[in-house]
Every structure is written in C-alpha cells, then in structure tokens.
Design brief:
Alpha-Beta Plaits; Rossmann fold; 6-stranded mixed sheet; alpha/beta; 380 residues
C-alpha cells in the first residue's frame, strides 16, 4: 500500500481519482491547492503526488521547484496532469522536472498504469529540475498557443540574446502560458454555463421563475402523445388573476409584480412533481395535470382558487389584496381531439368564469358541444 496525495481544485475530479486509487488499497491524501499540498507533503511524506499543471496559487512546475529547493523534504514521485490538447508540450515539461505525465481525461487503466510506474521509480532527495529543458519546452508551448511563427522566432531570438536574464524571462513565458491555458479552460466553462443559462432563460419566466409559454407549447405535443399511449386523461387549467389591472393602476407595477411572484410561488408549492406550471402571459397561468379523473381535477382547481384567497401578499409593509382567480378547466380528450383544442376550451371556460362574476372554476364544454357551452363547476 502506498500513500498518494491528489492535488485538484475541482471536487468531482478529486473524488474520481481518490475513489479509484483507494479501491486499489492505497492510502489517499487530498489537497485543493499547491500551497496546501506543500504542507501535506512536509507532514505526511507521501510516495506519489498527482498534481494538475493548473493548480491554483502554485502550479505543478512551481510545486516541483519548491520541493526541490527544500533540503528537508524527501521528494515524492510526481505525476503531472494537463488537458490532452497540450499533451506533447506538457509531457515534455513533466519530463524536465523528472515527473510522470497523465493527460486528461484519462481512463482508469491509464491512470493506474502511470501510478504503478511512478511507484516503481526511486524517490529523489533535493533533485533539481532541468532548467534548460524546461526553458526550451516552455518556449515551444508559448509558440503553440500564440499560433504565430514570427512571434515564436522573436521570442527565441530574445532568449538567445538575453541568456543572463533566463530565469526572469522563463517566469514571464511560463506565466503567459499558464494564463493562456486557463483562458481556454475558462472559455470552455463559460460557454457551457452560457448555454445552460440561455436554455434556462428561453424556457423560464424571469419574474416568477415558472416555465413560460414557449415551454408549454413545446410540451403539449409530448404530453398529448403520452396521454394517447397510456389511454389516460390530460387536464389543462387556465388561471387568471381577477382585476389585476387594479393593482397596477392603484399601487404601481411593482405591486403587480409582487402579486405575480406570489402566485408563481403558490402554484409551484401546490403542484405535484409531475405537473407542469407555466406563466402563460400577463396575469394568466397554466397548470397541466396528467392521469387524473375529472373529479380530482375539479377538486384541485377549487382548492387552488380557495388557496389564492388566503395568500397574504405584502408590498411596502402592507397587505395587497384580497387576491382571487378565475379558473377554466379543459380535459383531453373530453374537450378536444388535440391538446391545443383543450387549451382553447380551458381558455374559453376561464373567460366564461370572468363573465359570470369572477372568482370561480368553470369546466369547458365537451368537443361535441363546442367551446361556447362551458358548465360552471364551482363559484366563490
């Protein structure tokens, strides 16, 4: 059994390495930065250190140099890790430091093979890295990322003319390369996060946090197909806040926004996990239920209506309300041959509820009766 230190600032990557190596019977130590890793090495004297070449605070090259400059430390075997797209150059730098190299992402077999090879190699006390080879390889890596032959030639000429300043210029080149690699990684991460944010923004309402009308429209076909396959019903509730314009006109749009946010929170709380809740537009909301009989749907619609009346919505230190809603209910396939038709039936029923005095639930007419014949399910 060997003692292995894994230096990795990303917890998910660190857990992967630690779990895999621990299953092979090794004793595992962990650090999230180069500074922390140095302390662990001095305290625990590990056999192998696996470290990212982009570790925060102190990268792998600095880490190896710090170990080599400390006569009190028995230098462990080192395994440098870097992205596969800089594998050739990074491996050369690792060799210059007397370290093994592992490109990522790596499969378990490749990782275990490198660790086994490292454990078979002797430890070195006070070993100094090959500065000349490091200089050559870092110059090559800088040229790779600059992707400009003239810049590489100019850099080589400058290094040849100013060999007395080698150490200072080496640090500049190393830092530039380090930043370039980090920029690429950050750019990849930012692109992924931006795509997630964009998808979330496209499908969600920014004010209430509910799904928006676009998400509902994209879900209708999927839910209709599922209802047809299962032979079960699919219900649509169209929910409209009564006299909403009054809140905006008398208290201001900020108060209206507070009402909409409270409605969104309430509907999310009242919905089942499989329900789809959307802000349809303005003060209208939609709740889509699957696999529920008519009695259950109407009961839930009525409970929602009553629950809204109990909402204590505060704005600037005072209660806003009371709030009531008109609810129209449509059921597939009872009220339409398609879910789009059922949405229209529920919408017509909701307008009928408003015409009948608001604050009530109305069930849409069936597809044979047409949209103009809804029936009153309940009233306040």
């Amino acid at each position: 059994m060997a003692t292995i230190l894994v230096v990795e600032d990303r917890p998910i990557n660190r857990r992967f390495l630690v779990t895999l190596l621990r299953e092979r019977g090794h004793r595992l130590l962990q650090a999230s930065s180069g500074d922390e890793a140095l302390e662990v090495v001095r305290a625990e004297n590990p056999d192998v250190v696996i470290i990212e070449m982009l570790t925060p605070n102190i990268d792998a090259c600095q880490f190896a140099a710090r170990l080599a400059s400390d006569p009190a430390v028995i230098r462990p075997r080192l395994v440098f890790r870097a992205p596969v797209y800089v594998e050739a150059q990074a491996q050369s730098v690792a060799e210059a430091f007397g370290a093994f190299f592992l490109a990522r992402p790596a499969n378990p077999e490749a990782l275990l093979a490198v660790v086994t090879a490292a454990l078979a190699a002797p430890k070195h006390e006070g070993a100094q890295p090959d500065q000349r080879r490091i200089e050559d390889y870092l110059r090559l890596m800088a040229g790779t990322f600059q992707n400009h032959a003239e810049s590489l030639d100019r850099l080589n000429a400058q290094l040849d003319r100013r060999i007395v300043e080698r150490d200072a210029r080496l640090e500049i080149v190393r830092a530039a390369l380090d930043q370039e690699i980090k920029k690429r990684l950050w750019a990849e991460q930012e692109l992924t996060q931006s795509n997630h944010r964009l998808k979330d923004e496209v499908m969600h309402d920014g004010l209430t946090g509910l799904h928006n009308r676009r998400y509902l429209e994209e879900s209708l076909g999927r839910e209709e197909s599922r209802a047809r396959r299962s032979g079960r019903s699919l219900s649509i509730m169209m929910i409209d806040i009564d006299n909403f314009k009054r809140f905006n006109d008398t208290l201001g749009h900020a108060a209206g926004d507070a009402v909409l946010r409270a409605m969104g929170e309430y509907l999310l709380m009242a919905a089942r996990g499989e329900d789809i809740v959307c802000r349809y537009g303005g003060e209208e909301f939609v709740l889509m239920m699957s696999q529920a009989p008519r009695s259950t749907v109407l009961s839930r619609a009525e409970n929602l209506r009553l629950g809204v009346q109990q909402l204590g919505i505060e704005y600037e230190g005072r209660l806003v309300g009371p709030i009531t809603v008109s609810v129209g209910v449509g059921i597939f396939p009872e009220h339409g041959d398609t879910v789009e038709a059922v949405v229209r039936s529920a919408d017509a029923a909701m307008y009928q509820a408003k015409q009948l005095g608001r604050n009530r639930v109305v069930l849409g007419g069936n597809k044979d009766q047409g949209l103009s014949s809804p029936s009153i399910a309940s009233s306040g």
